[in-house]
Amino acid sequence: MEKGKTRRILRYIVVLLACVMFCQSAAPCTPMVLTAQAASVKKGLKKEKGSYYYYVNGKQVKKTWKTIKGQKYYFGKNGKAYAAPDRSSQGYKKNIVVKKIGKYSYGFDSKGCMVKSGYYNNPDKFDSKGNTMTYYFDKKGRYQAKQSKKIQKAGDYRADAKKLRAILGKPRKTKKLNSCFEEEGDDYRLVYSTVSVTIHRYPDGREIVFGIFPV
């Protein structure tokens, strides 16, 4: 009986030691699995297949504004941020797209950032006269129709450039262009902070507008 009891005690000790060893070896695996799962959860702003999305705990936000590093974005019903194409059909990078959200319309650049306080051009959109569309946005990024119509009219093809210069002020840079215009004079590109203007200057100093474009 003593020998049988001793064998049972030894078997119990062996089983107990095996359990302890298993637990010690298995314990470190649990936090590693959790860490891998946590790392796979998407968070924040992500660019996927050319579009921008915003994730909170792995879920896309939709139909909402988000401010990220001081820049405002709007994510539509499909989760994509409103954004202009990376390049316009004419090759411009700093173009915009205009979207209506609630009561107001806003402009967004190719990175999805809302533009504000200034004039911006969409070279892929034209008015009834064939001029590219130029918009004005206030400090809150809201489209302002009155100022937009004013600069749109001043930017008509062959309009007197004096009116457009009065609206935009002094350009940051003036660049002479190779002219293919059939009339005497020279062509220039006036570069401002958010738009550029192409004009023709006659020998007598008169200037006419060719168009408004992105910078």
Structure, described:
The protein is of the alpha+beta class and 215 residues long. It folds into 2 domains: 2-40; 82-214, no CATH class. 26% of the residues lie in helices and 34% in strands. The protein is built from 4 helices and 13 strands. The strands form 5 sheets. It has a 4-stranded antiparallel sheet with strand order 10-11-12-13, covered by helices on one side. Strands 1-2-3 form a 3-stranded antiparallel sheet, with no helix packed on it. The termini are far apart. Mean pLDDT is 88; it is low at 26-34.
Compact summary:
This protein is of the alpha+beta class and about 220 residues long.
pLDDT averaged over residues: 88
Largest sheet: 4 strands, antiparallel
Number of helices: 4
Which strand order does the major sheet show?
Answer: 10-11-12-13
Task: List the secondary-structure elements in sequence, H or E.
Answer: HHEEEEEEEEEHHEEEE
- Number of extended strands: 13
Beta fraction of the residues? 25-35%
Q: Give the termini distance in whole angstroms.
A: 99 Å
Low-confidence stretches: 26-34
How much helix is in the residues?
Answer: 25-40%
How would you describe the shape? elongated
Count of spatially separate domains? 2
Give me the secondary-structure category: alpha+beta
Radius of gyration: 32 Å
Can you give keywords for this protein?
215 residues; alpha+beta; 2 domains; 4-stranded antiparallel beta sheet; 3-stranded antiparallel beta sheet
Write the layout of secondary structure elements.
Elements: H1 2-26, H2 29-40, E1 44-48, E2 51-56, E3 59-60, E4 64-68, E5 71-75, E6 97-101, E7 104-108, E8 118-126, E9 132-137, H3 145-154, H4 161-168, E10 173-177, E11 186-191, E12 195-201, E13 207-214
Antiparallel strand pairs: 1-2, 2-3, 4-5, 6-7, 8-9, 10-11, 11-12, 12-13
